[in-house]
Amino acid sequence: MSVLRLTQIGNSVGVILPKETLARLKLVKGDTVFLTDAANGVTLTPYDPALEEQLKLGREFMHDYRDTFHQLAK
């Protein structure tokens, strides 16, 4: 667990992430992160939850039409 402090950044308030956290999340300066509500607070992730849902739907579609895709691949 890391303790983070809020800090003034211009007219906004920000959080400075420790180097170890950035490395674990594979983040670099300029990357985008997503903050989502969770049962016990919030979750910070580099992965877009909306994209995950789209990928799931795409995988289901490909599974449903796998024979068609197999024929198209020939």
Taking all Cα atoms into account, the compactness measure Rg is 19 Å
- Total count of helical runs of at least 4 residues: 3
Q: Main β-sheet, in a few words? A: 2 strands, antiparallel
How much of the residues is beta strand, in percent? 15-25%
- Supply the helix-strand structural class: alpha+beta
The 3D shape can be described as: elongated
SSE pattern? EEHEEHH
Helix content: 40-55%
- Poorly predicted ranges: none
Terminal CA distance reads 52 Å
Q: Would you report the number of β strands?
A: 4
Indicate how many domains the architecture comprises: 1
Average predicted local confidence, pLDDT = 89
Strand order of the largest sheet: 1-2
Pfam family, one: MazE_antitoxin
Protein name: Transcriptional regulator
GO molecular function: DNA binding
Domain SpoVT-AbrB: 7-52
Write a concise synopsis of the structure shown.
This is Transcriptional regulator. This protein has 74 residues and is of the alpha+beta class.
